[in-house]
Specification:
By secondary structure, this protein is an alpha/beta fold. The protein has two domains: about 260 residues, Aldehyde Dehydrogenase, Chain A, domain 1, CATH 3.40.605.10; about 200 residues, Aldehyde Dehydrogenase, Chain A, domain 2 (3-Layer(aba) Sandwich), CATH 3.40.309. Helix content is about 40%, strand content about 20%. The strands form six sheets. The protein has a seven-stranded mixed beta sheet, sandwiched between helices. Strands 9-8-7-10-11 form a five-stranded parallel beta sheet, sandwiched between helices. Strands 5-6-21 form a three-stranded antiparallel beta sheet, with no helix packed on it. A hairpin with a 6-residue loop joins strand 5 and strand 6. The termini are far apart.
Length: about 500
Amino acid sequence: MMSQTEIDRLRLLPVPAGQLFIGGTFGAAASGETLVSISPIDGTVLTQIAAGSAHDVDLAVTAARRSFDAGHWSRAAPAFRKKVMFRIAELIEKHALELAVLGVRDNGTEIAMAIKAEPGSAAGTFRYYAEAIDKINGEIAPTAPGILGLISREPVGVVAAIVPWNFPLMIGAWKVAPALAAGNSVVLKPAEGASLSLLRLAAICAEAGLPEGVLNVVTGYGTAVGAALGLHMDVDVIAFTGSGGVGRKLLEYSARSNLKRCYLELGGKSPNVVFADAPDLEVAAKTSAMGIFRNSGQVCVAGSRLIVEDSIHDAFVARVAAIAAGMRVGDPLNLTTEAGAISSAEQMRKDLGYIDVAVQEGGQLETGGAQILQETGGFYVQPTVISGIQPHMRLAREEVFGPVLGVMRFHTEEEAIRLANGTDYGLAAAVWTANLGRAHRMVGAIKAGLVHVNTYGGSDNTVPLGGMRQSGNGHDKSLHAIDKYTDLKSAWIQL
């Protein structure tokens, strides 16, 4: 059980400077350069972290390749890898509150959500893939007599994992755990604005018995560390979550280097479609509000487009706006807070800019729309609902990544489908209806990798998460994630 007293104690602990983790050892960047970590809670300096360079990346990739070739992990018995990964999960759980508070101080997620979404999720992910290690088998092909066809899975080698600032520990685990389960070595690049929990994860992995060099962490700017990983000739796979612009650069870097595989989760503009026959409109309203305003909208699958049937539109939007207006926004380390801080001053300015443009283009501000709590020095924006959004408006097409909900209305099922698919993205969606046939039709018609029905969020490791269209390719979570980190090898044997 969390207590406010323990959270307040942990928030006051000094945060040591973040160092690179290469070959099993923490150390400064080769250049000695650092970058400042600003806490979005109050805008103060939290600590400094090492600003890695291409030279540091080369050291990390070399350490990863050396460990892979040595085989201490890549060729270890599945039972050994399983034991270590279970131990990692146990240690994450042991230090869960410490990890959660550290992450919140770094990126501003409300603690009540962070404890579940960060260490809670990460421990579950490591445990899930530990269980999978000795249950993924090869195949024997149905060949003619006298021929034996064997199909086996092999680890790809060195994986570069590049993760964002919104849920670094959760998303980091989605990439690191299946890559390790398959026997690979990993170079992990956290976001410059949220590196601390992943550096702590590196120490936990070492304590759990992960061999030196199997996991390396290089912090720093994307223009230096991310680009160097993308261009490195000895990186076999990149697994990335972030913006479409950076995803395109990684594809370019792959083409310019060794044609490494790039798996890209590039965000979304997810539609949340509410029909008049939804089973419980009050539940739909509350869940829709949480689906966009949790973590102040800084969620890749956030339901940022609310598409409501005309006959219930006004009453439903009024209810969602009332819920938004009543949300407790503020100190993310307070257990009663429902929406925490925006991750940075830059992101806050972007959010407010989208609100201004939406109103200028004809949207009606139902609630919110302003920065609040300026006296704290932190970065906070009111949960904002804007109705009257039309398909051509920027708020209907572009990902804000903030607490801003655009509302559209529809009259027919066909129109709802057209509006839902009216962006370049295709990550997540939701449909609210009591009509089973309609639910199936909508799931089939909406172009998204994950479609919720009569709920929003909450899917676990048993199902994959991946995008369609410009939301990217490849999948995190589920056994399908392991496909990214293995090569198939066939043996054709004349008996």
